[in-house]
User: Fold this.
Amino acid sequence: SPLFMNDDLPNELYFKNLIGGNNYMLNKLRLQESMADNQLKISKSAYVPNIALFGKQTLYADNLPRNLMPRTMVGVGFTWNIFDGLNREANVRQARLTKQTLTLGREKARNELSVLVDKLYSEIQNARDNVAALNTTIEMSRELVRIRKKSFQEGMATSTEVIDAETMLSKIQIAFLMAYYQYDVSLASLLATCGVPETFWQYSRAGKTEDFIFPTYESGDSPIIKE
Assistant:
């Protein structure tokens, strides 16, 4: 795909807000934390007595006296384990520690992802600043190549000076390409971190591309940039 830059990139806060709801790692930890919370509730329920209700209604009984078999019966069953060797306490403690560990792990992961977003967004801004600075430098280098070639034709400059100017222009062009490349790689990493990697192509289609041409040129000719 062509290298591009998008001037309508949202601010850093927008991407930080995406982390909480879209990052697969945080979603996984959040689900595990919910499961640990349910396990803690189940462990605590061992302290509660078990109560069972039952009832019976005889709809039809032929030649069966009521005093021998009541037509309606209602009962309650109650069981309560008073002591189980501290197994309940151990289960509750383990479930609580598991939940706390997952909660701390989720907060740590969120902080690390937030720092990563800061780093990637800073790389994107640096790449954009480099392109802005290199735009002017490229124009100056191209003008220097033109002047050196003109001076060489007039006998006021050596061929080495012309080659040096062309080499400098090529280096700046490569640096320009690297800035675009760094922008695209950092943006792709940022979107993947935020859990929305599929939106990369939307930014790509709406971005500005720069097509560089490095043709095979004869001595004295210089590389050009396609406008």
Remarks:
- Residues 103 and 139 are 55 Å apart (CA to CA).
- The two ends are 19 Å apart (CA to CA).
- Residues 4-46+83-225 form a domain with the Outer membrane efflux proteins (OEP) fold (CATH 1.20.1600.10).
- Confidence is low (pLDDT under 50) at residues 213-227.
